[in-house]
User: What shape does this take?
Amino acid sequence: MTNRNISAPAGAAEERQARAKRPRTALAGPYGHPLHATVVTVPIGAWTASVVFDILALCGVEPRAFSLGAQWLVAIGVIAALGAAVLGLLDLSQLEKGTKARRTALIHLGFNSAAIVLFAIGFVVRTTQVGQASVAGFVVSLVALACVGVSGFLGGELAYRYGVRVADEATQRKGFE
Assistant: This one.
């Protein structure tokens, strides 16, 4: 199997890149303003705050209140992440098979999926320990948050290195005229 990136003429690569910059549908956000990148801030913020709440609960600071807060922040993050995943899949659908951008996006998807599953497991673990700090839930959250960190790096590669769903340079240049 040959790598289409290497063997394809320059014009074909430019056409694939231009397609990756355009939204598949208005639901993905307008050109140059992908909604996926905006919506992911909700689960990332909720999950990060849940870890802070876990630390406070484990340190004995209002353990009942902070452990319950952490549990609900995990749930909010999972629900928001599912919405972000739908938007991410719309962006993924614009990436042609066989490209490095698509392979990176699939790895990004894998880490995000692992994080969602881990946080969901952590939520279930927490339901067995209502009102008390959950060491197991905290550990699962740390592993899941590490997955989110790797995924975020890959998302940055997609946007900033490969320009997925980022306006082309001619459009960007208008901001500097």
Summary: The mean pLDDT is 90.
